Amino acid sequence: MSQKLPTSEEYKYGFVTEIETETVKKGLTEDTIRAISTKKNEPEWMLQYRLKAFELWKTMEEPTWADLRYPKIDYQDIVYYSAPKKAVEKQSLDEVDPELLKTFERLGIPLTEQKRISGVAVDAVFDSVSIGTTHKEELKRHGVVFCSISEAIHTHPELVKKYLGSVVPTSDNFFSALNAAVFTDGSFVYIPKGVRCPLDLSTYFRINASETGQFERTLIVADEGSFVNYLEGCTAPQRDENQLHAAVVELIALDNAEIKYSTVQNWYTGDKEGRGGIYNFVTKRGKCQGKNSKISWTQIESGSAITWKYPSCILLGDGSQGAFYSVALTHDFMQADTGTKMIHIGKNTKSTILSKGISTGNSRNSYRGQVKIMPSAENARNYSQCDSMLVGPNAAANTYPYLEVKNKTATLEHEATTSRISEDQLFYLQSRGLDKEAAISMLVNGFCKDVFKQLPLEFSVEAVKLIEMKLENSVG
Amino acid sequence: MALLEVKNLHAVVETADGSEKPVLKGLNLTVNPGEVHAIMGPNGSGKSTLSKVIAGHPDYKVTSGDVRYEINFQMKNLLEMDPDVRAKEGVFLAFQYPIEVPGVSNEVFLRTSFNAICKHQGIEEMSEEAFAKFLKAKMEIVEMNPKFLERGVNVGFSGGEKKRNEILQMAVLSPRLSFLDETDSGLDIDALRIVANGVNRLRNSDNAVVLVTHYQRLLDYIVPDFVHVLADGKIVESGDKTLAKKLEEKGYDWLLG
């Protein structure tokens, strides 16, 4: 009962104090990193990992090759840690600050015992911390570990040490180095040998505090012969300032394991004039380490002012398979530069790329993808299809496919189309009684169908609704 | 009371160089419930244009004249309505070149369209199951294979299949006024018979059909009450079905002077 809403007096004074107590001072120095590590009560090896990353980051340059235009980010003007005081160290989700529960409930993610969604276990991350994970007991019975990465550092250090940075090394890029230095929370998943995860696992990321960056770190390990369906959602409130989300997600699939990773990204996009919105610089990569392992990335990218994101697969194990299914919708002044890398190393490896970009308003939407066939990859196969749809006269779409083939036995197919919603298509649907919005929505849904059907059913329904809502607001 | 009254209709279309080209130049036409009209005429005379203007295609601009359509016993200005509102009020255009809608199954499309119209008319919308049953019966009218329901709207359909699909839409939406724009072109004789039978089965004393066609042969199957000749943007001759026979024999030259 101590978790009731604070009284107005508490709220009036206590609130500011709470924020101060739970926020690390703006800016990024070694002290910031030490402070984060201390707050999280981390072991020394984790602190050293961070400090090493920070040293490296200081020597690196922000990448400029993407088709994105934005003012220089001031990394000293960001708060790197912000946690609602009442969120930390709770025994059960029912004890969490009702305001937080209410927030997630409004986002369609009920967390409490009575209300939580059956069939899906959720880890809820609010600003810099996980506020809890549902269905823990049930998962535990199957040996599945699903918790925040902060918790895993304490409870499963051997797994974290072994795999953290094994797919996306600190040195990979500017943002991965930054993330390694300052990441605060994210999810950790371990599926033991031969276990088909009995529930879908899901992490919901919420940015709430102003001037704060979110540095998510997620690590998923699927041991031999296991299977997991993982879903990720994200939102942030509407603000005039830009906020940074720089995440690193690593997936590891051992022999015959399969990971399906789906994202519905709905960060705040900025307003109609392009003010505000999240800068989303994300490194996601999966390693099909074992033979016949499979990793698929399905993403619905409908948010953020800027998206810089290339969920990729390293196909190391013989017979392993990678897939990337993507819908990226940009509107108003949004910019997205997104795609994938498929790196074929093992024999008989196979990858599929299906990308659908929709640009409306003044937005820019680029697909950037690489297929690399290494000399060792006998009989590798890739199929890529990249389609762009333009709505209105001012939107832009680009496709940048890169191919690097070092083994002659490879088979690659690439198709790309750019279309504009034609007056004739719209008129046809309108002449059958659909108003303009419904007609556009039908055309776009048809365009994206092959990607939507890769999502779990519930998610797919949500994705369709989300895209429809975005179109309604941006076309008219 | 007439179903449709077109009076002194003038319309223009924007050409590639940005100038406006007159396409309808004072067209008059009255269609009453229960009637079948055929509109014939040489290429480029404005036949397809008339259908598109009635349905509200955005490429055409009406510069003067009047198009009135009966709604609840009142003649309403059709030109003020958006294309979807016209459809919801029972105006239907079977396209000369039906448009492909990739990724949207025919069944979903038909149901969405049907329910949008029901909603507008204050009729209860149909559930998926009820609609599937309803649709099955309609499919038989145009002898269509159920496998077409799964496929994307008009995607990969042959010319004849697309035309049949248009008539299926007409059967599902039960419009009061249908313009069939060269629905017979590109059909082999069997398909023509199926399409014509379909249209005949959908006719009743409350609805009307306007056939835009080049060929007399369609009119052997769907017998019109009136035949009009459209030339240079207006109707230059009207008559009964014998006019079509005469055109078949003599061509248009005798009318064009």
Structural domain count of chain B: 1
Number of strands of chain A: 20
Average pLDDT reading of chain B: 94
* Order of SSEs of chain B: EEEHEEHEEHHEHEHEHEEHH
Largest interface: A-B, 23 and 30 residues
Number of helices of chain B: 9
Strand percentage of chain A: 25-35%
CATH topology of chain B: Rossmann fold
CATH-defined architecture of chain B: 3-Layer(aba) Sandwich
Give helix % range of chain B: 25-40%
Class per helix and strand makeup of chain B: alpha/beta
Beta-strand share of residues of chain B: 25-35%
Number of strands of chain B: 12
Characteristic terms for this protein:
heterodimer, A: 476 residues, alpha/beta, 10-stranded mixed beta sheet, 20 strands, 25% helix, 34% strand, globular, disordered N terminus, B: 257 residues, Rossmann fold, 6-stranded mixed beta sheet, 4-stranded antiparallel beta sheet, 9 helices, 12 strands
Can you characterise this structure?
The complex is a heterodimer of chains A (476) and B (257). Helices cover 25% and strands 34% of the residues of chain A. Chain A starts with 7 loop residues before the first helix and ends with a helix. Chain A is globular. In chain A, the strands form two sheets. In chain A, strands 2-1-5-7-9-11-14-16-18-20 form a ten-stranded mixed beta sheet, with helices on one face. With 476 residues, chain A is an alpha/beta fold. In chain A, a hairpin with a 2-residue loop joins strand 1 (120-126) and strand 2. By secondary structure, chain B is of the alpha/beta class. Chain B has a single domain, classed as P-loop containing nucleotide triphosphate hydrolases (Rossmann fold), CATH 3.40.50. Chain B has nine helices and twelve strands. Chain B is globular. Chain B starts with a strand and ends with a helix. The A-B interface holds A 423-425, 427-436, 438-439, 442-443, 445-450 and B 55-59, 82-84, 86-88, 92-93, 95, 98-99, 101-104, 109, 112-114, 116-117, 120, 152, 169, 173.
